[in-house]
Amino acid sequence: MDKKTIIKTLEKIALYMELQGENPFKVSAFRKAAQVLELDARSLAEMDNILSLKGIGAATGSVIEDLINVGESSLLVELQSTVPSGLLPMLKIPGLGGKKIAKLYKELQIDSIEALKEACETNKVQALAGFAAKTEVKLLAEIENLQSKPERTAVWQLEPIVAMIESKLAAIPAIDKFSVAGSYRRVKEASKDIDFIIATATPKEVREELLKVLPVLKIIAAGDTKVSITLGGEQEVDVDFRLVEARQYASALNHFTGSKDHNIKMRQIAKEQGKKISEYGVELEDGTVVHFESEKDFYAYFNLPFIPPTVREDGSELTKLDQLSKLITLDDIKGDFHMHTTWSDGAHSIEEMIEASRTKGYSHIVITDHSNYLKVANGLSKERLLKQMETIKEINAKYTDIEVFSGTEMDILPDGSLDFEDEILKQLDFVIASIHSSFSQPQEKIMERLQTAMKNPYVHMIAHPTGRIIEQRDGYNPDVPTLIEWAKEYGKILELNASPYRLDLKTEHLKLVVEAGVPIAINTDAHHIDQLKYMEIGVRYAQKAWLHKENVVNTWTLEQFKQFIQK
DNA sequence: GCCGTTTTCGGCCCGACTGTTTTCAGTCG
Questions:
Q1: A81 has a pLDDT exceeding 70
Q2: Whether pLDDT at A41 is above 80
Q3: Which of A102, A117, A148 is the last residue of a domain?
Q4: Does the entry feature the keyword Nucleotidyltransferase, yes or no (predicted)?
């Protein structure tokens, strides 16, 4: 029996209980028990006192004992035999929760989305107390919608939408200030919706403006403080706007940035002090409400350092406050080691990339165009690469404030060989090895290819190690723990590719890399000067894995970097 | 269902919005 299975079982039990219309506190007790296990860093074998953990009592404890002793939970088995599995997907229908689904099942024997659709169409649902004609229409629309709209939208799809909304909000005079909040602000890879906080003295006016200037497909809700809409366009997405007074802004921003778990932890802390946190401020026992100028002030009020949005996740961040000052920040970044120019598939010349990098304040960068194999990207032949090296040398001589190194993003070919011979590689300052082809090979073959690169003495780094595109393709499925072991053995850098399409390696893998003590480079893989800005999302994503400055190659000084690439 | 150094019973984070009601339940974040 492993911990994951126990956690999953407890969560599944909670789900089934919800579908029975159970007491929500009872349901959340099972979720909490699952979370207690999740947050405990120890493996199942290392935990000798599971049943004495806070949050695990008689009922949840017996589920765990069942799983360890028998291999299955009698409670879950019982629930599964009484609750039809067809009710589970019904929870995905907006407007339907456990109570209503339980009622629909109990009164009308509705046990699937299909059955619900039919019952609505034949007007059987409106006969139930608490349901009416309008509900049937809404349910039918939501069921219809369920197939067409994806559950989560990737960060790279949201990015241009957020930018569009920001430009619209900036042009509304009645808005004092605004910020994106929610999981997008926490740099989650994908989000269910986008949240915005708006400070205004005239919320009604702003509400009307919003509905006018945005490409609204559907209004989900439009109250005095909340406007929820579905935006049309290439990518349909739900957006929530919260309209608050200027003095409530910091509290609202904090509240709607979440995460939910982080907020709950903060509220518990406040409660112990006899205070109450809401999205409008902190209420004291005598009823007065304290407001804050900024989120920093809000945390300071509870004697806490500023906690960046990116690490506000499962609540465990409040036990790692001593690490906050070591977290990697954009200010620590001294260089970018993976970018393309017009020599291969980039949009800008070497000089333009250098100039754009100088405005970032970098002390060193590496130009890494594609190699010969990648014809679609105009990959460089060895002759062109040698010529580029000369060109970079000449250009570099013109600059005193930035050092430009010659590199390559060399393909690891499908047959496991490398695209350039050692004779060429040893002349380069920095060598990246990447897989761009034959993703569907069996894992052993993929690992064989990666190992060839790892063993090559002239390779410095493996780029986008899994090849994933967020929410779109999984990549080539390497055995990442083994890859990390090799990186340690052969002294290689692993990349956190900062392109929002990739964010590769992902958080859970980055944590392993840190544990192994393998250096990580955060690189934009920029094909355009505008994409150099991806360093920011990369750094903020790295914070989610609690990457410290010392784990990240980009924080090294020019001298330290030179030493590494020369060995 | 779980918890407890004011508590073994009563509260569990808190508030907005909708659709159903005619003062509130359910859902959502």
A1: yes
A2: no
A3: A148
A4: yes
User: Which region, left, alpha or beta, applies to residue A383 given φ > 0 means left and ψ of -120 to 50 means alpha?
Assistant: alpha
Q: Report the pLDDT value the prediction gives residue A437, as an integer from 0 to 100.
A: 92
- 3-state class (DSSP) for residue A530: helix
- Per residue in A9-22, pLDDT (tens digit) is 999 999 899 888 88
How far apart CA A112 and CA A123 sit, in angstroms, is: 16
Q: Which nucleotide C1' is nearest A53 CA?
A: B2
Residues A175 and A314 in one domain: yes
Residue A480 shares a structural domain with residue A355? yes
Same domain, A553 and A416: yes
Query: Do A312 and A349 lie in a common domain?
Result: no
Verify if strand B has an atom below 7 Å from the CB of A149: no
A268 touches strand B (CB under 7 A): yes
CA dihedral A484, A489, A490, A493 (to 10 degrees): 40
Give strand ranges (E) for A452-551: 461-462, 493-497, 520-523
Residue (of A474, A480, A445, A444) closest to A462 by Cα position: A480
Statement: residue A235 has pLDDT above 90:
no
Average pLDDT, integer, range A490-502: 96
Q: Which of residues 98-127 of A touch strand B (CB under 7 A)?
A: 98-101, 126
Q: Which residues of A70-89 are buried (b: 16+ CB within 10 A; e: fewer)?
A: eeebebbeebeeebbeebbe
The answer for residues whose C-beta is within 8 angstroms of residue A35's C-beta and 6 or more apart is: A55, A261, A314
Q: Which nucleotide is nearest to A52 (CA to C1')?
A: B2
**What is chain A's Cα-based Rg?**
27
CA torsion, ordered A403, A541, A413, A531, to nearest 10 deg: -50
Q: Does pLDDT of A248 surpass 90? A: yes
Q: Looking at residue A407, what DSSP letter applies?
A: E
Domain CATH number, residue A266: 3.30.460.10
For the CA atoms of A265, A266, A270, A271, what is the dihedral angle to 10 degrees? -30
More confident: A144 or A506: A506
Residues A287 and A424 in one domain: no
Domain containing A469 equals 330-566
For residues A15-42, one letter each, b for 16 or more C-beta atoms within 10 angstroms of the residue's C-beta and e for the rest, the string is bbbbbbbbeeeebebbbbbbbbbbeeee
Neighbouring CB atoms inside 10 A of A9's CB total 21
Mean pLDDT of chain A: 92
Find the nucleotide nearest A225 (Cα to C1′): B16
Which nucleotides in chain B lie less than 7 Å from some protein C-beta? Answer: 1-4, 11-21, 25-29
Give chain A's domain count.
3
The verdict on A305 and A341 lying in the same domain is no
| H helices present in A406-506, as ranges | 422-425, 443-455, 480-490
pLDDT of A567 strictly over 70:
no
CA A538 from centroid of its chain's CA atoms? 11
Using the Cα atoms of residue A356, residue A361, residue A366 and residue A370 in order, give the sign of their dihedral: negative
In sequence order, the 6+-apart residues with CB closer than 8 A to the CB of A307 are A262, A299, A317, A318, A321, A324
More confident residue, A417 or A148: A417
Is a pLDDT exceeding 90 seen at residue A152? no
